[in-house]
Amino acid sequence: MYAVKSIRQTYPQNQDLDQMMEIFRQMVNQCIRIGLENNISTLQKFSSMFYHELSRYKIQSYYKFTAMSQACGRLSQMKSDIRKGRRVKPPFVSRPFLVSCHGFKINGILLSIPIGNKRYINIVLNDHVISELSKGVEPRSFAITPTSLSISVRKQVQGITPESVIGIDRNLRNVTISTPTESVMYKTNKLLSIKENSMRVRAAFRRNDVRVKNKFFTQRRNRQSRRTQQFLHKISKDIVQRAVMTKSMIVLEDLTGIRKLYKKGNGQGNKYRRRLNSWSFYELQRQIQYKASWEGIPVEFVDPKRTSQLCPICGGKCQEDRFNRRKLWCSNCKKSMDRDVVASMNISCKGWSRFCHPRGLSDEAVKGNPDNLQPVILRVDGSKLVCGRDI
User: Fold this and answer.
1) How confident is the model at residue 181 (pLDDT cuts 50, 70, 90)?
2) Which residues, listed in sequence order, are joined to residue 302 by a DSSP beta bridge?
3) 296 with 158: CB under 8 angstroms?
4) Are 117 and 105 in contact (CB under 8 A)?
5) Residue 257 burial by CB count (10 A; 0-12/13-18/19+): exposed, middle or buried?
6) CA pair distance 76, 387, nearest whole angstrom
7) CA gap 312, 335 in Å, rounded
8) Whole-number Å distance between alpha carbons of 239 and 149
9) Which among 10, 41, 116, 306 could bridge 75 via Cys, Cβ 3.0 to 4.6 Å?
């Protein structure tokens, strides 16, 4: 099994590279136009019929094949969106870029990119990229934009046989995980502050200049995105490290379609819908998935139905605490636990029952005789094993 990831860095601008990126952008748009006119979205059919159309572009032939591949990918995505009933516009590439998986070389600290006539452009790699490339990985391709360089690498990993499960419950203000020995809550209130501050700064812009306004808004959005990704990077890294140390499978909720709950017209306020629609639940999932696959950790998904209602110890239905809505009370076990901890423990139980110890999956969190109330894997008191962490 192969795991793939990308290593990114900045680089000084080069006039020859800028010219090649612009030619590549024009080739991709030309291929998109041809594909739309002839209703073609497969690389094999496109290359056999219209490769000669790119002969007027003075660039190496393997860049032409990559341009056709980029165009076919965008056309296939457009057709997929149309089948799903979405209203889409024809794809168009507005920013110059360059992608290739052929011809480039990595010579020590240099990335050599061919530009024709046996000439190369050398880009100096930073220490982070060099250290990652020295770990026995195989460079597969590169992608260049006017501001950054990304190198795609892969390595062969051996998937682990999970001995336990880490269940993850994602919420707007925290991320809670449960292992067989402890439950950990990561506070994410800072993400809300980042988004609200960014929104206030954009709303305070008063200059009547569209170009300056667009540039300013782009800078603020990029800054917000970088801060959010860095914050979630620390959480996802800690979760994957715990999974590696305990040889655990990672199980998350399947939140597909959750945005439909916060559409306009659902009877919800604007501020509430804005907060929930800007919730970065998928970014955390993306980071966990690629980091876990790099370490050979399996990641699975379960239905989140009733995970915040059932007691993870006895399987009975919990009741809300009258004085604290975040607390749940189980009348059978006489336990009071945080609802997010309850959800993460139930997700662990569901993941263990379905993927590690399959005996059929029911709606309950536990199995067996109701008279002999025993948990599936979590024999811990969740009310005593919660520790909040500010990342």
Assistant:
1) confident
2) 253
3) yes
4) no
5) exposed
6) 46
7) 11
8) 28
9) 41
